[in-house]
Design goal:
Elements: E1 15-19, H1 24-36, H2 51-61, E2 65-69, H3 78-88, E3 93-98, H4 106-115, E4 120-123, H5 125-128, H6 135-147, E5 150-153, H7 169-178, E6 183-186, H8 195-201, E7 208-210, H9 220-229, E8 235-236, H10 246-254, H11 260-275
Parallel strand pairs: 1-2, 2-3, 3-4, 4-5, 5-6, 6-7, 7-8
Helix pairs in contact: 2-10, 4-6, 8-9
């Protein structure tokens, strides 16, 4: 494992379950395009969008491992994403591939993803133009569950799109009910900018909730209620890097008024179980 930065924020091991990176040749064009696409407020990248940039950011923050979540916006991208994800996997980087809902043979690609040693799949309903509980997504989710893969879903609104219901907490719950054996992660603490609905709809269910793009945005009293009421084994730490500063996100998490045992589970132990790693 590459040596981590000498300045640490915490004595905990840290696993960031939500980051993004691109092939080196693509990152230079993808990052400015995504920065320009933000509708709600200005958004900037805190590293250059490459795997190398991510690992350097992890070192600065004192983060040991991270999931890199890819997003297929067109069906023809799917095999290339699987191949690239397999090529960048390491002890530090745990890539999740992606399957577009219109991909012709999702079950076969899920099997290929699992055979490549990858641990999961990312699905973004806005970029795929497909609700999270659509039958095509349920088909992919069932295949993933059968293959032993986790799935990470964008949940709630998205900064780059007008508000709609395609990733609402209620749709997330319907997907869980359709595929209850899926190891399912609802990003952004279950629904970005829809946290009261998360509290009313998802809290208490065996669905992983991860904290990316939530800390400092969700009212802290509500966030602490969600963390207190949700099963402690289904809570995770995420940052959505490069769209947040990983070091700052970790600092904000460590400042939360929750006990040390729960912090340890959120920062490390639950993520190991999610991706079926032992250490």
């Amino acid at each position: 494992m590459a040596e981590l930065a000498s300045i640490k924020q915490t004595h905990f091991n840290v696993f960031d379950v939500h980051t993004h990176a691109f092939p080196d040749k693509l990152a230079a064009s993808a990052i400015p395009k995504l920065e320009a696409g933000a509708l709600w407020f200005p958004c900037r990248a805190y590293y250059d969008g490459t795997v190398g940039g991510l690992v350097a950011s992890m070192d600065r923050a004192g983060i040991r491992r991270a999931i890199v979540a890819s997003i297929a916006t067109r069906p023809e991208q799917v095999p290339k994403i699987t191949d690239w994800s397999a090529s960048v996997a390491s002890d530090r980087v745990v890539p999740f591939a992606s399957i577009h809902p219109d991909y012709a043979q999702p079950e076969a690609e899920v099997e290929r993803i699992a055979a490549a040693g990858l641990r999961g799949i990312k699905f973004h309903p806005y970029y795929a133009e497909c609700p999270v509980d659509d039958p095509r997504v349920i088909r992919i989710a069932r295949a993933a569950a059968a293959a032993g893969l986790a799935m990470l879903f964008h949940a709630g609104y998205d900064l780059a799109y007008e508000k709609d219901e395609c990733a609402s907490p209620r749709r997330v719950r319907r997907l869980h009910e359709a595929v209850p054996d899926l190891r399912m992660v609802a990003a952004h603490t279950g629904g970005w900018e829809r946290w009261q609905e998360v509290y009313e709809t998802l809290v208490g269910l065996p669905i992983y909730l991860e904290t990316s793009f939530t800390l400092g945005r969700c009212p802290e009293e509500l966030l602490l209620k969600i963390l207190a009421k949700h099963p402690p084994e289904y809570l995770l730490f995420g940052t959505d890097g490069p769209w947040t500063d990983q070091r700052e996100e970790l600092r904000k998490f460590l400042a939360l008024a929750i006990d040390e045992g729960l912090k340890r589970r959120i920062l490390w132990e639950n993520a190991l179980r999610l991706v079926k790693l032992t250490a």
